[in-house]
Amino acid sequence: MPAKRGLITDTFKVVKKVRKEDTHGKKSPPPPEPVPESPPLSERERDLLELKRFDLDWRFGPCTGISRLQRWDRAALHGLDPPQEIRDLLLDREDDPDYSHCLWRDYPL
Questions:
Q1: Residue 18 contacts by C-beta under 8 Å, 6 or more apart in sequence?
Q2: Cα 85 vs. chain centroid, distance in angstroms?
Q3: pTM, 2 dp
Q4: Are 101 and 68 in contact (CB under 8 A)?
């Protein structure tokens, strides 16, 4: 005679769903507070942010070990169409190391 098997509810407990009429008395959570806007960026901060985007863009080749202007020239030589605004920005601020060096200058190769 085969052994009698138990019911599936003996192994897995029954979870009752909450009915919609039970939720009417509950309050919904308040909406999240708005995030305050950050102050506008200065021209220098905007320029450095744009240069950071250029450094992080893999389409123009690796940027470690060379200056941003050298990377721009190499990308142009290979026909990768780097943005002209970046070159103009780099030529305007050649003496400033924050502008001329790439993002990864502080990390050894």
A1: none
A2: 23
A3: 0.62
A4: yes
